[in-house]
Amino acid sequence: MLEWTQTIRLYHWLRVFRKAWYWKICKAYTVPEFERSISSIRALRPEACRKLEAARFEKWSRAHCPANRYNYMTSNCAESINALTKTVRKFPITMLMDYYRDLIQRCLGMTNCNRWEKAWFSKRTLKGTNQKLVYPLPDPKLWETPHDLQVVLPHALVKPQPGRPKNKDRITSQGEDSKINRCF
């Protein structure tokens, strides 16, 4: 048996959930997006869907609106982009650019190349890489190397001195004499 506080919370949650569901359907820009959203209501609450259909979609849905007033081409573009990128705005700029690329690809119906890449990481492909005979390398002492090879050494690393570096290009104050240092 539910306590009265649980019942109130459940009632409140259902009201908020229904409202969010309704607004998701209302704000869908494209007809396929609208159909995906309303199909979830059709499956769970067919009587609610019948009421929405009776009110006629073109009266309350952005996707079915005959006028261009609330279309994504006439609405505030910056506001639309901000709403799209709300979730990725707190991440580094590279992830934001990747999100924009993914968004444009989805809008244009383009695909990413991951579906062709996944086959390379299967067990069958991995086992297939070693099917042919692989000759092991002999001991490095037995390698044939030319005698005129030049030995290349890495450059010497100079460790920076600890502490804050001296500022040598500062502007002298008024009345301050410049010091002349000569090291012989």
UniProtKB/TrEMBL annotation:
Which residues does the annotated region (Disordered) include?
159-184
Q: Which domain of life is it from?
A: Eukaryota
Task: Return the Basic and acidic residues bias intervals.
Answer: 166-184
Listed name of the protein: Transposase, MuDR, MULE transposase domain protein
- The source organism is Tanacetum cinerariifolium
Which lineage do the record's taxonomy fields give for this organism?
A: Eukaryota, Viridiplantae, Streptophyta, Embryophyta, Tracheophyta
